[in-house]
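the two lines:
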Amino acid sequence: MDIIYTIWLRNIKRYLRSKSRIIGSLGMPLFLLLVLGLGLNSVVQIPDTGQGYFEFIIPGIVAMSVLFTSVFAGIQIIWDRQFGFLKETLVAPVSRLEIMLGQTFGGASTAFVQGLIILVLSLFIGLSFSSAAGFVIAFLFMVLIGIAFTALGIAIASRMEDMHGFQLIMNFVVFPIFGLSGALFPISSLPGWVQPLTMLDPLTYGVEGIRYGLTGTAQINPAVCFVVLAAFSAFMTVVGAWLFRKMSI
Amino acid sequence: MPAIAAENLTKTFGDFTAVDRISFTIEEGEIFGLLGPNGAGKTTTISMLSTMLRPTAGKASINGYDIHGDQDGVRKSIGIVFQDQSLDEELTAYENMDFHGRLYRIPGEQRRAKIAGLLALVGLQDRRHDLVKTYSGGMRRRLEIARGLLHEPKVLFLDEPTLGLDPQTRNHLWEYIERLNEEKGVTIILTTHYMEEADRLCDRVAIIDHGGIIAMDTPQALKNQIGGDVVTIHSPDPDAVAGSMDAPWIAHIERRDGSVVLSMQDAEQHIPGIVTGLVSRDIGITSLSVHKPTLEDVFLHFTGRSIREEAVSGRDVMRLYHRMGR
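prediction for all of em together
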């Protein structure tokens, strides 16, 4: 446990120290929130619930923020490898599983904080505070998204030589996951053949879970969301740990 | 129990044999050097000994722990300073040390005391709360050495510890390394391609080339293999000089341009004899110089290209002369 904590602590310290990264990675979600949310709010109304568009996409943008930060945090071990720091960790008498879990929880924590910042900011822009319980539910889903996708990032990084593939991963893995998740539009308004794809996207369950917590309505039963996302997180952690174990330095 | 024992350690990458059946034993408290050109297999050897790389064949033990059978035992027994920097630049020196101490499960109070002591030892105490990215190359090296010692390893690996450092910093580091060895009794194995470094620091040196050990002994004994001191005589008539050198203590005679190069033991004692002999035969001397062989000479002797081509014969001749000299 203390080893996991040690590695978690390093991640948190690095995160708190990189002010430019914190602010930099808030830019995109805030931009989408303002431009899409406020810009389309008066034009778009969500069919079934009658929600405004701004309220609708806040959970999506929060999920996006967590998603991007966590994948990025996972992929960061490539830098640790390139700058040699990973060696220092791997040559210590600790198991790779502990290292991987520390990295995962560290990444998930920073991703959660990034999402939380967006959430708090949207309270000022117009999100209405529903209930404390609702927020706790949203937090739970944010943490699960963070764990799942940091682990995914570590899994990818374990198989990558260097950062050259990063753009590829962003374009062909992260953006599709975000785009298909129903973060920006209701799943029901998609054409029939896209809907199954959406249901295969683990982030969908995260977005819907957060949406249930923040607004009280969701298109997927929140219990189903929880089970699917928790299972996916556990699965990704196992895969990530396995690939990380096999990674050569 | 030896600090390190390696037996026929081998690593191949596909067709390429990076390390070829090397065997050596390092006693406790020794400073042992692996000397060789870049790509000779030094770092690969270190990687295998430190459990970072699994050997293709052969075995090795560190502090009695098998590198394959008991990785954790090995890892607790060793400290490593890698060839490439392995610090977290976004953390302070203290935080880097603290991270290391926690990874090796050193209890809090003890950890803090040791970190303070070691940072003082390498002269970084004043700057312990500065981010490592503000450090110079020499300071980083010192920090890495201090960090490698935090968990009190029996054996310290230094992979090219002074690579890329300026001569002054290098000198300082050498002093630190010597002091560590003396004060803490740490066994040190270092790789280098600086002859001077190996000569100055190491109790014993293994010269490694193309993955194999081609010579291993104390630096002095290695230099003695050259056949003793090197005496160079410049003369208007070098042939006559060469012809007149028939004393039994001359190990080796070689003509080089306008000069004659002799190898012999204890050259200082023989110089008066050489000079009197030449003067009595009316052979002129332009200049005469004596130089102690360096590891550079040894290294050229064993790995130089022209020597490599006739390696066997050249070495045999040398050995013959060497025997004659005794």
